[in-house]
Amino acid sequence: MRTLRKGISPIIATVLLILIAIATGIVIYAFATGWIGGRLNQGSGPQAVLVVETGYWDSNNNAFVLYVRNDGGVVANITRAYITDPDGNVYYIDASHISNSTTLAVNGTGKGVIVSPGNVNETVIYYGATSLTVQKGYAYKITLVSSDGAEVTYTVRA
Q1: Are residues 153 and 110 in the same domain?
Q2: 158 close to 65: Cβ distance less than 8 angstroms
Q3: Is there a contact between 123 and 91 (Cβ–Cβ < 8 Å)?
Q4: 28 and 94 together in one domain
Q5: Are 135 and 57 found together in one domain?
Q6: Is 19 exposed, middle or buried (0-12, 13-18, 19+ CB in 10 A)?
Q7: CB under 8 Å to 77, separation ≥6 — which residues?
Q8: Which of 116, 122, 137, 138 has the most CB atoms in a 10 Å sphere around its CB?
């Protein structure tokens, strides 16, 4: 015995195929013009990735020395630093008190960055603190910030 089966009408099938073809064309056009593709590939936030390999307090030069490398995809330029003392005071150190060799190549080797808190004055110190005296035996948190906003924090015991 044969059973009769009914399918969709040829007109509805044709309309569905046309709609699928139009939708596929719109998606391909959107990617080709960058409307979607540009938004998917667009990175947000810093592109540099700073890593501190080691650091120490140089009492002869009154400076913190940090060996930093850049594991990111763009060249990093360290433009400022923050030092937090054991009491929680935060000191802003601008580029004039950081060593000149602060440009870090992409996937480069570590480079020594010298932060000199002994040279700071009230024009570069914020957050309630007026001077920074580094005391032996205490831990200081140093945060380095690059021009694109990437940052790294490292604790050094003086």
Answers
A1: yes
A2: no
A3: no
A4: no
A5: yes
A6: exposed
A7: 102, 103, 104, 146, 147
A8: 116
For 157, residues 6+ apart whose C-beta sits below 8 A from its C-beta are 57, 137, 138, 139, 140
Q: Residues 105, 70: contact at Cβ < 8 Å?
A: yes
Structural domain includes residue 2: no
Domain that holds residue 28: 10-41
State both tokens at 107: 């996937």
User: By CB neighbour count within 10 A (0-12 exposed, 13-18 middle, 19+ buried), where does 2 fall?
Assistant: exposed
Q: Tell me how many helices (H) and strands (E) the chain has.
A: 2, 8
Concatenate the DSSP letters of all residues of 106-120 into one string: TT---EEEEE-GGG-
Q: Is residue 1 part of a domain?
A: no
Query: How many structural domains are present in the chain?
Result: 2
- Taking only the tens place, the pLDDT of each residue in 104-153 is 888 776 677 777 776 454 334 444 545 678 888 999 999 988 888 888 99
pTM tops 0.85, yes or no: no
